[in-house]
Specification:
Number of strands: 16
Largest sheet: 9 strands, mixed
Oligomer: single chain
Number of helices: 12
Bound molecules: ligand AOF, zinc ion
Shape: globular
Length: 380
């Protein structure tokens, strides 16, 4: 039904307002619609541990002097059915005498799932709707974390119209416009970790901190993938390690090796945390293990990947990228030696490529921000 799409889209847009505040919980939004089609309540899960979307929507409805009785609740996630930090939403909807619930994605959690059955048993009509891809995809990062034990990995890059991220000389400042760069800082302030590679540290000497952002929701850990512990001690990341948490992930055997002792001591004195990670083929670290460890040991729910083509290619090769936020600038280089987004893979046929699906589109200044997700949400 066309109304389903509009109402679920609205619920999803509300939920997105809490990006960076609600995680590791899912982003959830709820819209209450009266039988005459008017929207009478809006709510979203604002922060981890706070009220759930459904109760927020019922409260907003009552605050305006309206009665939720007989209304339809459009929720991006199946209303929960268990006690956690909050009581079950299925109960709240039943008590408010909501007549119908339309939800976009089931809640697979053992402790909170089963809301659909509970609502039905109480005589509430329940339907699942795929009408809004935005709403259906909203809980993917949270479901992915539960299934895989890994954080949700968002790769970000800025490219020319012909798909290049730097000139043949390595120049990349700036491909995207100022408005796009502001969006990136906003994104940095909503994730738990920013991952980059040694190549980017050497080429760009980035700070990887959120700057010029109205409200910093999270202060991301800065993580450098540096198998051989080659990071220059004078780089911006190391010299600011006292102010912003900084991890250098290197081959596990280097942590005990005498040859690296001085380097380790200097980095640690600067405030860097060294993280030994098992090695994998082709001189890389085991990136899957690194991500799992960041989630398990440091509670990292969301990772922003800001790196060059080598690390990007390795992560695509291992299918570790869940989302891509791409800024496309209105510029064509037309130079086949200019750098591409990712390299190091062998893709002899189109089917060997990594398939993504378009999730959101936004015009940002003269650029376009495209958000892609993995084609099919999958397990490990
Ligand atoms: C909903 N509406 O707005 C959210 C839901 O610890 P708690 O009580 O906050 O519960 C968190 C769990 O509740 C979370 O893991 C997921 O299963 C569900 N999230 N459910 O009906 C909401 N945020
Ligand atoms: Zn709930």
């Amino acid at each position: 039904m066309p109304d389903d799409k509009a109402h679920l889209d609205l619920a999803a847009r509300l939920a997105l307002r809490a990006a960076g505040d609600a995680e590791p919980n899912p982003l959830v939004g709820c819209v209450l619609v009266a039988p005459d089609g008017r929207v009478i309540g809006l709510g979203h899960h604002r922060r981890f541990g706070g009220l759930h979307a459904e109760r927020e929507a019922i409260l907003s409805c009552r605050r305006q002097g309206r009665d939720p009785r007989g209304s339809t609740a459009f929720v991006t996630l199946e209303p929960c059915n268990g006690h956690g930090k909050q009581p079950p939403c299925a109960e709240a909807l039943i008590e408010a005498r909501v007549a119908r619930v339309v939800f976009a994605a089931p809640d697979p959690s053992p402790s909170k799932g089963g809301g659909e059955g509970r609502l039905r048993a109480a005589g509430v009509e329940v339907a699942r709707s795929d009408a809004s891809p935005l709403a259906s995809g909203l809980a993917e990062p949270w479901i992915h974390r539960m299934r895989t034990g890994r954080p949700w990995v968002i790769a970000k890059w800025a490219q020319t119209l012909d798909g290049r991220v730097a000139t043949r000389m390595g120049e990349s400042k700036w491909i995207s416009g100022e408005a796009s760069r502001r969006r990136v800082h906003r994104l940095r302030a909503r994730v738990d970790a920013i991952v980059t590679g040694l190549g980017t540290v050497v080429a760009d000497d980035p700070m990887l901190t959120p700057r010029g952002v109205r409200r910093v929701r999270r202060r991301p850990l800065r993580v450098v993938v540096d198998p051989d512990l080659e990071i220059p001690e004078t780089c911006a990341l190391v010299s600011t390690a006292g102010q912003a948490p900084t991890i250098v992930a290197c081959a596990a055997e280097l942590l005990g090796a005498e040859i690296a002792r001085l380097k380790r001591e200097r980095l640690e004195a600067a405030g860097v945390t060294l993280l030994g990670t098992p090695a994998s083929a082709r001189g890389w670290l085991d990136l899957r293990e690194l991500l799992t460890g960041l989630h398990r040991e440091r509670g990292v729910a969301t990772v922003l990947l800001e790196c060059g083509p080598g690390l990007m290619g390795a992560l695509f090769e291992q299918d570790l990228i869940d989302e891509a936020v791409v800024y496309v600038a209105p510029l064509v280089l037309g130079d086949e030696l200019a750098r591409g987004v990712a390299e190091g893979r062998v893709a002899r046929s189109l089917t060997a490529g990594r398939a993504l699906r378009l999730w959101r589109v936004k015009a940002v200044g003269g650029d376009v921000e495209l958000t892609y997700r993995r084609r099919s949400p999958r397990g490990a």
